[in-house]
Amino acid sequence: MFCCGRALAQEDDPLQEVDVQAQRQTALESQALAISETPNAGPHLLRPYAIIGLGPLIAPAYDGSMKTKVSPFLYLDVRGLFNDRVFVSDLEGIGVKLLNDGAVRAGLTVNYARGRTSSDDPHLKGLPDIGGAAQVGGYLAYVFRPFAIETKVGHRLGSTSGTQVSIGASVSAAPTQHFHISLSADLNWADARYQQTFFGVTAAEAAQATAEGNPLPAYTPGSGLTSVGMIAAGVYQVGDHWGLVARIGFHDLLGTSVKDSPLTQRTFQPNFAVGAMYKF
Fold first, then answer.
1. In a domain, 234, yes or no
2. Contact at 8 Å (CB) between 228 and 188?
3. Between the chain's N and C termini, which has fewer beta carbons within 10 Å?
4. What residues contact 209, with CB distance under 8 A and at least 6 apart?
5. CB-based contacts of 155, cutoff 8 Å, min separation 6
6. 84 lies in which domain range?
7. Tens digit of pLDDT for each residue in 157-175?
8. pTM of the model
Protein backbone atom coordinates (compact mmCIF):
# COMPACT_ATOMS: atom_id res chain seq x y z
CA MET A 1 0.00 0.00 0.00
CA PHE A 2 1.60 3.05 -0.75
CA CYS A 3 2.80 4.68 -3.66
CA CYS A 4 3.34 6.15 -6.80
CA GLY A 5 3.01 6.20 -10.47
CA ARG A 6 5.64 6.84 -13.09
CA ALA A 7 5.44 10.01 -15.18
CA LEU A 8 4.15 9.31 -18.65
CA ALA A 9 5.30 12.59 -20.11
CA GLN A 10 8.79 14.00 -20.52
CA GLU A 11 10.70 14.62 -17.30
CA ASP A 12 11.37 18.24 -18.21
CA ASP A 13 7.66 19.12 -18.14
CA PRO A 14 7.19 20.84 -14.73
CA LEU A 15 3.39 20.85 -14.89
CA GLN A 16 3.31 17.11 -15.58
CA GLU A 17 5.75 16.46 -12.74
CA VAL A 18 3.55 18.42 -10.31
CA ASP A 19 0.54 16.36 -11.43
CA VAL A 20 2.43 13.08 -10.94
CA GLN A 21 3.53 14.11 -7.45
CA ALA A 22 -0.05 15.05 -6.55
CA GLN A 23 -1.31 11.68 -7.75
CA ARG A 24 1.37 9.90 -5.72
CA GLN A 25 0.24 11.68 -2.57
CA THR A 26 -3.40 10.90 -3.34
CA ALA A 27 -2.58 7.20 -3.78
CA LEU A 28 -0.64 7.17 -0.51
CA GLU A 29 -3.52 8.74 1.40
CA SER A 30 -6.04 6.38 -0.22
CA GLN A 31 -4.02 3.32 0.77
CA ALA A 32 -3.42 4.48 4.34
CA LEU A 33 -7.19 4.85 4.73
CA ALA A 34 -7.85 1.51 3.01
CA ILE A 35 -5.60 -0.37 5.40
CA SER A 36 -7.33 1.21 8.38
CA GLU A 37 -10.62 -0.06 6.88
CA THR A 38 -12.12 3.32 5.99
CA PRO A 39 -11.29 3.40 2.25
CA ASN A 40 -14.53 5.02 1.14
CA ALA A 41 -13.50 8.32 2.72
CA GLY A 42 -10.40 8.61 0.54
CA PRO A 43 -9.65 11.32 -2.02
CA HIS A 44 -10.96 11.12 -5.58
CA LEU A 45 -8.50 9.29 -7.85
CA LEU A 46 -7.89 10.59 -11.36
CA ARG A 47 -5.97 7.51 -12.51
CA PRO A 48 -6.41 3.80 -11.76
CA TYR A 49 -3.74 1.84 -9.93
CA ALA A 50 -3.27 -1.68 -8.60
CA ILE A 51 -1.32 -2.82 -5.55
CA ILE A 52 -0.32 -6.25 -4.30
CA GLY A 53 1.39 -6.98 -1.02
CA LEU A 54 2.46 -9.81 1.21
CA GLY A 55 3.38 -10.03 4.86
CA PRO A 56 2.65 -11.86 8.12
CA LEU A 57 -0.57 -11.26 10.02
CA ILE A 58 -0.56 -11.86 13.78
CA ALA A 59 -4.05 -12.12 15.25
CA PRO A 60 -6.24 -14.25 17.55
CA ALA A 61 -7.23 -17.64 16.13
CA TYR A 62 -10.86 -16.46 16.28
CA ASP A 63 -12.80 -13.62 17.92
CA GLY A 64 -12.63 -14.37 21.62
CA SER A 65 -9.64 -16.73 21.49
CA MET A 66 -6.63 -16.59 23.80
CA LYS A 67 -4.47 -18.29 21.18
CA THR A 68 -2.44 -16.15 18.76
CA LYS A 69 -2.09 -17.28 15.17
CA VAL A 70 0.49 -16.18 12.59
CA SER A 71 -0.64 -16.50 8.98
CA PRO A 72 0.42 -15.10 5.59
CA PHE A 73 -1.59 -12.12 4.45
CA LEU A 74 -1.87 -11.52 0.70
CA TYR A 75 -3.25 -8.10 -0.09
CA LEU A 76 -4.78 -6.91 -3.38
CA ASP A 77 -6.22 -3.45 -3.98
CA VAL A 78 -7.34 -1.93 -7.30
CA ARG A 79 -8.80 1.60 -7.28
CA GLY A 80 -9.65 4.44 -9.63
CA LEU A 81 -11.56 2.27 -12.11
CA PHE A 82 -14.26 3.91 -14.28
CA ASN A 83 -13.50 7.42 -13.06
CA ASP A 84 -13.00 6.10 -9.52
CA ARG A 85 -16.47 4.58 -9.39
CA VAL A 86 -15.38 0.95 -8.91
CA PHE A 87 -12.80 -0.69 -6.63
CA VAL A 88 -11.63 -4.25 -6.00
CA SER A 89 -10.10 -4.91 -2.60
CA ASP A 90 -9.10 -7.88 -0.49
CA LEU A 91 -10.46 -6.03 2.55
CA GLU A 92 -13.60 -4.44 1.09
CA GLY A 93 -14.49 -6.74 -1.83
CA ILE A 94 -15.93 -5.36 -5.07
CA GLY A 95 -17.52 -1.96 -4.60
CA VAL A 96 -19.53 0.50 -6.67
CA LYS A 97 -19.45 4.12 -5.52
CA LEU A 98 -22.88 5.68 -5.99
CA LEU A 99 -21.83 9.02 -4.50
CA ASN A 100 -18.14 9.82 -4.82
CA ASP A 101 -17.83 13.61 -5.00
CA GLY A 102 -18.36 16.13 -2.26
CA ALA A 103 -18.77 15.55 1.45
CA VAL A 104 -21.31 12.71 1.27
CA ARG A 105 -20.11 9.30 -0.05
CA ALA A 106 -22.21 6.17 -0.55
CA GLY A 107 -21.89 2.85 -2.29
CA LEU A 108 -22.63 -0.88 -2.48
CA THR A 109 -20.24 -3.81 -1.97
CA VAL A 110 -20.03 -7.57 -2.52
CA ASN A 111 -17.40 -9.30 -0.44
CA TYR A 112 -16.16 -12.68 0.81
CA ALA A 113 -16.81 -13.17 4.53
CA ARG A 114 -14.33 -15.52 6.13
CA GLY A 115 -15.33 -18.40 8.36
CA ARG A 116 -13.59 -20.30 11.14
CA THR A 117 -11.70 -23.59 11.36
CA SER A 118 -12.16 -25.57 14.56
CA SER A 119 -8.64 -27.01 14.39
CA ASP A 120 -7.21 -23.50 14.90
CA ASP A 121 -7.91 -23.59 18.66
CA PRO A 122 -8.36 -26.48 21.14
CA HIS A 123 -11.30 -24.58 22.67
CA LEU A 124 -13.22 -25.19 19.42
CA LYS A 125 -12.64 -28.94 19.42
CA GLY A 126 -15.81 -30.84 18.55
CA LEU A 127 -17.52 -27.84 16.98
CA PRO A 128 -18.20 -27.71 13.23
CA ASP A 129 -16.14 -25.51 10.95
CA ILE A 130 -17.77 -22.29 9.74
CA GLY A 131 -17.31 -21.94 6.00
CA GLY A 132 -16.77 -18.72 4.15
CA ALA A 133 -19.77 -16.99 2.56
CA ALA A 134 -20.69 -14.17 0.21
CA GLN A 135 -21.58 -10.89 1.89
CA VAL A 136 -23.52 -7.97 0.43
CA GLY A 137 -23.51 -4.55 1.98
CA GLY A 138 -23.36 -0.80 1.67
CA TYR A 139 -21.79 2.26 3.23
CA LEU A 140 -22.56 5.91 3.86
CA ALA A 141 -19.81 8.38 4.76
CA TYR A 142 -19.47 12.07 5.54
CA VAL A 143 -16.03 13.54 4.82
CA PHE A 144 -14.62 16.75 6.27
CA ARG A 145 -10.95 16.21 5.55
CA PRO A 146 -8.79 15.07 7.18
CA PHE A 147 -11.66 13.55 9.16
CA ALA A 148 -14.44 11.19 8.07
CA ILE A 149 -17.43 9.43 9.66
CA GLU A 150 -18.73 6.23 8.10
CA THR A 151 -21.55 3.72 8.64
CA LYS A 152 -21.33 0.26 7.06
CA VAL A 153 -23.85 -2.58 6.83
CA GLY A 154 -22.97 -6.13 5.77
CA HIS A 155 -25.27 -9.15 5.40
CA ARG A 156 -23.73 -12.61 5.29
CA LEU A 157 -25.57 -14.99 2.94
CA GLY A 158 -26.18 -18.74 3.14
CA SER A 159 -26.68 -21.14 6.02
CA THR A 160 -24.48 -19.01 8.31
CA SER A 161 -26.27 -15.78 7.50
CA GLY A 162 -26.31 -12.73 9.71
CA THR A 163 -26.09 -8.93 9.65
CA GLN A 164 -23.43 -6.60 11.00
CA VAL A 165 -23.55 -2.83 11.37
CA SER A 166 -20.61 -0.57 12.23
CA ILE A 167 -20.14 3.13 12.90
CA GLY A 168 -16.63 4.49 12.57
CA ALA A 169 -14.49 7.59 12.26
CA SER A 170 -11.04 8.18 10.80
CA VAL A 171 -8.34 10.82 10.46
CA SER A 172 -5.36 10.86 8.09
CA ALA A 173 -2.09 12.80 8.03
CA ALA A 174 1.15 13.06 6.04
CA PRO A 175 4.16 13.72 8.32
CA THR A 176 6.44 13.65 5.24
CA GLN A 177 6.01 13.54 1.48
CA HIS A 178 6.63 9.79 1.39
CA PHE A 179 4.84 8.76 4.58
CA HIS A 180 1.07 8.70 5.21
CA ILE A 181 -0.69 7.51 8.34
CA SER A 182 -4.30 7.01 9.36
CA LEU A 183 -6.16 6.27 12.56
CA SER A 184 -9.68 4.86 12.74
CA ALA A 185 -12.12 3.76 15.43
CA ASP A 186 -15.33 1.75 15.15
CA LEU A 187 -18.27 0.41 17.13
CA ASN A 188 -19.91 -2.82 15.89
CA TRP A 189 -23.32 -4.46 16.30
CA ALA A 190 -24.65 -7.82 15.05
CA ASP A 191 -28.04 -9.50 14.90
CA ALA A 192 -28.93 -12.73 16.71
CA ARG A 193 -28.26 -14.98 13.68
CA TYR A 194 -24.71 -13.67 13.30
CA GLN A 195 -24.11 -14.00 17.04
CA GLN A 196 -25.37 -17.59 17.00
CA THR A 197 -23.01 -18.49 14.17
CA PHE A 198 -19.84 -17.22 15.84
CA PHE A 199 -20.62 -17.17 19.58
CA GLY A 200 -23.49 -19.64 20.03
CA VAL A 201 -23.36 -23.36 20.83
CA THR A 202 -26.33 -25.60 20.08
CA ALA A 203 -27.25 -28.52 22.35
CA ALA A 204 -25.99 -30.99 19.75
CA GLU A 205 -22.70 -29.12 19.35
CA ALA A 206 -22.23 -28.96 23.12
CA ALA A 207 -22.79 -32.73 23.41
CA GLN A 208 -20.30 -33.43 20.59
CA ALA A 209 -17.63 -31.12 22.03
CA THR A 210 -18.04 -32.63 25.51
CA ALA A 211 -17.77 -36.13 24.09
CA GLU A 212 -14.43 -35.16 22.51
CA GLY A 213 -13.02 -33.83 25.78
CA ASN A 214 -13.94 -30.18 25.37
CA PRO A 215 -16.82 -29.56 27.79
CA LEU A 216 -18.98 -26.68 26.55
CA PRO A 217 -22.48 -25.70 27.66
CA ALA A 218 -25.21 -24.90 25.16
CA TYR A 219 -25.58 -21.18 24.63
CA THR A 220 -27.93 -19.01 22.55
CA PRO A 221 -26.87 -15.36 22.27
CA GLY A 222 -29.07 -12.46 21.25
CA SER A 223 -28.43 -9.43 19.11
CA GLY A 224 -26.31 -6.60 20.45
CA LEU A 225 -22.98 -4.81 20.42
CA THR A 226 -20.03 -7.02 19.57
CA SER A 227 -16.86 -4.91 19.72
CA VAL A 228 -15.22 -1.52 19.83
CA GLY A 229 -11.78 -0.93 18.42
CA MET A 230 -9.05 1.19 16.89
CA ILE A 231 -6.73 0.65 13.92
CA ALA A 232 -3.56 2.60 13.09
CA ALA A 233 -1.91 2.20 9.68
CA GLY A 234 1.19 3.65 8.04
CA VAL A 235 2.32 3.55 4.40
CA TYR A 236 5.87 4.50 3.39
CA GLN A 237 6.94 5.02 -0.23
CA VAL A 238 10.35 3.48 -1.00
CA GLY A 239 10.50 4.05 -4.76
CA ASP A 240 8.33 4.49 -7.82
CA HIS A 241 6.79 1.06 -7.28
CA TRP A 242 7.80 -0.35 -3.88
CA GLY A 243 6.52 0.56 -0.45
CA LEU A 244 6.26 -0.65 3.13
CA VAL A 245 3.13 -0.89 5.25
CA ALA A 246 2.38 -1.57 8.90
CA ARG A 247 -0.93 -1.86 10.71
CA ILE A 248 -1.84 -2.46 14.34
CA GLY A 249 -5.36 -2.93 15.65
CA PHE A 250 -7.04 -3.31 19.02
CA HIS A 251 -10.60 -4.59 19.40
CA ASP A 252 -12.39 -5.24 22.67
CA LEU A 253 -15.37 -7.58 22.66
CA LEU A 254 -18.35 -6.17 24.53
CA GLY A 255 -22.02 -6.81 25.17
CA THR A 256 -23.39 -9.61 27.32
CA SER A 257 -24.21 -11.80 24.31
CA VAL A 258 -20.53 -11.96 23.39
CA LYS A 259 -18.93 -11.82 26.83
CA ASP A 260 -21.16 -14.57 28.27
CA SER A 261 -20.44 -16.97 25.42
CA PRO A 262 -18.51 -20.11 26.45
CA LEU A 263 -16.35 -19.52 23.36
CA THR A 264 -15.10 -16.15 24.61
CA GLN A 265 -11.86 -16.72 26.50
CA ARG A 266 -10.48 -13.19 26.22
CA THR A 267 -12.23 -9.96 25.24
CA PHE A 268 -9.14 -7.91 24.27
CA GLN A 269 -8.19 -8.83 20.69
CA PRO A 270 -4.98 -7.25 19.29
CA ASN A 271 -3.68 -7.81 15.76
CA PHE A 272 -0.61 -6.71 13.83
CA ALA A 273 0.54 -6.87 10.21
CA VAL A 274 3.64 -5.63 8.37
CA GLY A 275 4.66 -6.17 4.78
CA ALA A 276 6.02 -4.99 1.45
CA MET A 277 3.82 -3.68 -1.34
CA TYR A 278 4.25 -3.26 -5.10
CA LYS A 279 2.26 -0.81 -7.22
CA PHE A 280 1.53 -1.34 -10.91
1. yes
2. yes
3. C
4. 125, 126, 127, 201, 215, 216
5. 135, 136, 137, 161, 162, 163, 164
6. 14-279
7. 998 999 999 999 988 887 8
8. 0.83
